[in-house]
Amino acid sequence: MEKPNALEFFRGKVRYNCAQAVLKAYAPVTGADESCLERFAQFGGGRAPDGECGAVFAAKSLLEDADARKAVERDFVTLTGTMRCRDIRTGRRASCEQCVQTAADALYSQLSKSMPLRRPLLCTN
């Protein structure tokens, strides 16, 4: 699979938030449809569980393997120093665009290691 460009969806023509942009970039592989993308609208702007950045929350939601999710977290924290959106934004650690790109790249790294992606559990009912 060619590396998807999550930034093309982030705040673009459709105005996807950070979580939706990562999800949309990998939709061809995961089968995430518009109803799934709508569910992820609630996770942008620091509204993911525990105030986590929506981009990394979405990336992790596409991975079944716990070690792969931890690897995504490590890659993300290397850039931002934290997983919490508020801390990233107030500390000016990274822009939202950088967070989206980093989360999407970390997910691609796992995919290139043959880690399978899945449709998010939040979208499987």
Explain what you see.
This protein is globular. 51% of the residues lie in helices and 0% in strands. The chain has 125 residues and is mostly helical. The protein has one domain (6-116). It has helices spanning 18-25, 27-30, 34-39, 54-61, 66-80, 85-90, 96-112. Helix 1 packs parallel to helix 4 (54-61). The mean pLDDT is 94.
Q: Give the tally of β-strands.
A: 0
Helix content: 40-55%
Contiguous uncertain segments of 5+ residues: none
Give the biggest beta sheet.
none
Q: What fraction of residues sit in β-strands? A: under 5%
Euclidean distance between termini CA atoms: 27 Å
Shape: globular
Radius of gyration computed on alpha carbons: 13 Å
Count of domains:
1
Helical region count?
7
What's the structural blueprint in terms of helices and strands?
Blueprint: H1 18-25, H2 27-30, H3 34-39, H4 54-61, H5 66-80, H6 85-90, H7 96-112
Helix pairs in contact: 1-4, 1-7, 4-5, 4-7, 5-7
Describe this structure in a few short sentences:
By secondary structure, the protein is an all-alpha fold.
